[in-house]
Design goal:
By secondary structure, the chain is α+β, with helices and mostly antiparallel strands. Helices cover 55% and strands 14% of the residues. It folds into 2 domains: 43 residues, no CATH class; 56 residues. Strand 1 and strand 2 form a beta hairpin. The two termini are 31 Å apart. Bound molecules: zinc ion.
Length: 104
């Protein structure tokens, strides 16, 4: 509930659709993105005729990229070794790039 109140406070619009993963009511952000306030991620709505398998694959790749990003961020947080910091930063950049391409 708190998450939904937060979304409304930010000016998002509550939709009549529910998240296919967790069942939470979906919100449309000001930039038009459909967002699940519970999982805090963008939800791709599959319109009639669109390839639902493709959308599922994209959603799963999105989740994988996000979880790897989080893992690397935690390691970067504690790392003091310059070589490791550089490697982690480069990998994070690649993952962010992949995420952006995924969204484009
Ligand atoms: Zn959800």
């Amino acid at each position: 509930m708190k998450e939904m109140a937060e979304m409304l406070r930010k000016g998002a619009k509550m939709l009549s659709m529910h998240c296919p993963e967790c069942g939470t009511p979906l919100f449309q952000l000001k930039n038009g993105e459909i967002f699940c306030p519970h999982e805090k991620r963008e939800v791709k709505i599959v319109k009639d005729g669109e390839d639902s398998e493709k959308a599922k694959r994209e959603a799963s790749l999105d989740r994988t990229l996000q979880s790897k990003l989080q893992l690397l961020q935690e390691r970067l947080d504690v790392s003091t070794d310059p070589t490791e910091i550089r490697e982690l930063t480069q990998t994070i950049t690649v993952l962010l790039d992949a995420l952006n391409r995924q969204k484009a």
